[in-house]
Design brief:
Structural class of chain A: mainly alpha
Strand order of the largest sheet of chain A: 1-2-6
Shape of chain B: elongated
Largest sheet of chain B: 2 strands, antiparallel
Distance between the termini of chain B: 67 Å
Number of strands of chain B: 2
Mean pLDDT of chain B: 87
Mean pLDDT of chain A: 85
Largest interface: A-B, 15 and 15 residues
Radius of gyration of chain B: 21 Å
Oligomer: heterodimer
Strand content of chain B: under 5%
Low-confidence stretches of chain B: 1-7
Strand content of chain A: under 5%
Radius of gyration of chain A: 49 Å
Number of strands of chain A: 9
Chain lengths: ~775, ~220
Amino acid sequence: MAPRIPPTPHKDDLGETWAFLQSGIENVMVKLDDGVDMKTYMALYTAVHNFCTSHKAVSGQAIQAQRGAHLLGEELYKKLGEYLSGYLENVYTQSTSHAEEALLGFYMREWSRYTTAAKYINHLFRYLNRHWVKREIDEGKKSVYDVYTLHLVRWRDDFFKNVHEKVMDAVLNLVEKQRNGETIEQSQIKSIVDSFVSLGLDEADPTKSTLDVYRSFFAKPFLAATRTYYEEESRQFVAENSVVEYMKKAEARLDEEKARVGLYLHPDIAKHLTETCLDVLVTAHSELLRDEFQPLLDNERQEDLARMYRLLSRIKDGLDPLRTKFEAHVRKAGLAAVEKVAAEGESFEPKMYVDALLSVHTRYHSLVKEAFNGESEFVRSLDNACREFVNRNKICKSGSTKTPELLARYTDSLLKKGSKAAEESELEEMLVQIMTVFKYIEDKDVFQKFYSKMLAKRLVHVSSVSDDAETSMISKLKEACGFEYTNKLQRMFQDIQISKDLNASYKDWLDKSFLDDDDRKKLVDSHFQILGTGFWPLNAPSTDFLAPPEIVKTAERFQKFYFDKHNGRKLTWLWQLCKGEIKANYIKNTKVPYTFQVSTYQMGILLLFNESDTLTYPDIQKATTLTPEILDPNLSIFLKAKVLTISPEGSKPGPGSTFKLNYNFKNKKIKVNLNIQIKSEQKVETDDTHKTIEEDRKLLLQSAIVRIMKSRKKMKHVQLVQEVIHQVKSRFPPQVPDIKKNIEALMEKDYIERLDGDEIAYIA
Amino acid sequence: MYFQQGGGVPTPALNQIFDKYRESPEENPDGIGIEGAMRYLGDIEVELDEVTCLAIAELLQSPSMGEFTREGFVNGWRSTGCDTVEKMAAHAANLRARIPTEPDLFRRVYRFTFPLCLVQGQRNLQFEIAVEQWNLFFTPPKGGVAWNTRTTPWLDWWVEFLEGRGKRPVNKDLWQQVEVFMRKCHEDEEFGWWSEDGAWPGAIDDFVTWVRERRGKAEGAMEVE
């Protein structure tokens, strides 16, 4: 049923026109559901049009006409505004009888009705919009809007201003219910949010909207309520629950609030909401959380640690105190692990020590990865802690060189034949682990020294477990420390390879050479290794030695061959490293004669017994010229193995004793190894190694100083010291007094001199 | 060039004086030996065991203790404008007065003493000689600067300290730095200027530690009393 239409008004009568329009608008506003027929609609539209154009027709003067149109448009605009204010006043009055959810329902119903009507009315007044309003706006008039916007402005100023607080109270009550676990009608809040957003009008540019209204009237109270709610909740929760539980709660709440944004809030609030929640849930309780860090570490609660990390990583400077605690904790754990090993006394295996270091590293490395997201700052803390306990702990109390020494020994035990790591892949894995510890070692030069000594032995005695493993280890060291660090190690390998070829050509040479039958019969099956003096960490023998004639002949023959090939080279025989096998044909109680594996020194002693069954100590000493330090322990080995017997019986080898060949020698094995390293030798070797390290460090420091000064010519003393530290620290951590001492030494040698003002100058 | 212009002393007059003190004009026409030097120093009223004597050696660039060369003698005196023995004596007296009060002059003479006192063929000063020279330079009676203060017998402790570590020969750097150190000690006897990482020679670093310990002990002893 279409409403009855009043008669079309006179176009230049404002009162009549407005009355006509008002009744039409009223219909749109209140009874839109009943519909507005096209005819009515057109009549209303025409009335606006006619009114606005009426004076143009009457006066016929362009300027006046325009002014007239202005005035009349303004009247209409004002009337509409007044009508809306009146209408909204009525709406407000109605609203006062609603509260809470009912109010929200009411608000949304009215809003929806009002905005729908606004669209139609806007349409009816299009002519006004297009001419009068446009001109006003173009002329920069404030507070003139298109008709739709006028509706919003009126809503905002005449209704919203009066009810928003009550509406927000209702919204916040709903949210609180939801936070308390009740189910609510979310869509209602979503609509409210949208309506608040719609009211954000940009006064400067009506085509744009702003979030001002939403921000001040929705977001602000929402955030404040959130803060209060969680302040209260967390305070209570913490009082009644453990920190671990609280962290779970806090994390769940943070997730929940994040989801809430997506459900019914405007994304603009997301950042502030998160910040508010973090502030109340995390920052406010950060001390409490941090206090729990140590207990969690102690109990290895990885999941809870991860949660704490996640929470504290989201607030400013949240993690710094944890890093410090973590570092201290790891260091303590490392030191404790070492203490345990140290409690074993002197006799622990290097493996035990290295395993102890590794186990701590592995444990906390995985914690950093799993719980702390592998974050680089925690990795740094871990590294700092490891460096501390690897270099400074109970076992290396006497000096930080103990760790590299033990690590090198452990490596040797793995790479030497007879090691327990059977699988190649397993061995490789262990080498990787060794590098983990190696990375933390400050005295890398010490490792190098010991490693090269032991490598030399493995190579000379052909006792490497595998060439691949050796190569792999060297390439790892090279990768970590550079070419220079492994240069000599690689040259040692080369020497061994070259020696193999050399022995092959020696065999050929031997076959072609003219040896008489007697010589051929006495030919000793031999193998030679030529080791470059500069690359091998080997010393000349510590004792004189007259080799047995058979050996001397063999050696001379090889020397002849070698000097033919390489004129002018010098060969030094390292008897202490030579070894061989001899057959004990004199023992008749076996079918196959025993073979003794002996050192060359031992060979020299035993072969004497070919001439005589009984020899005195002075006889042996005179014939071999071995010093007692070498001779005595070797004789003891023979006595212990019962190859020789001593008289007087039970005495220790010495000038008064006599030795007799034991024809009744017996052993379960056919091959008997008598070439056992003497304890005292090992000790001397270690001491020697430490001594050469000191020497090498002095050289390294001095060459660094000279190198720096040569390129800089002049430099402050302090800077020079710093530069030296910088250049040398990859090998070992230099002490300032040592650097100064070497600067002084170079001054004395006139490489450098002191100028005034603590400057050092290079003397060319 | 500068000296020649400034002095304007005719070379012949100086050569004549130099010639008077030569010992063997035939064998060594351009050198004055020990006897001549002693006679000459006596004539210009300089004693052999005072700092002024070393200042003269520095002025005339003596190659070693008690020797002068013609070149050094002539150049040295020409630069001062002295052409008679009387003027030279006056100049020596002037030096005597200036040495304790003019640090630059003092340092120049002190540093020149190191090569002067070296035993031929050696790079470092023998400990005993060094101590003798320090006693000369660092006490007032013979024209030096006092290094013992009311609170600390610096020179005595320094010598005692070096004796304790084995009377090692003194190298040039240490010799020079001791004088710098001496001045610093006067500035602040509590070593406020000293740092472990500073550029001081190791011996001086160790001495600082030694002095501190010694003072600590002294204080401890007083407390016990």
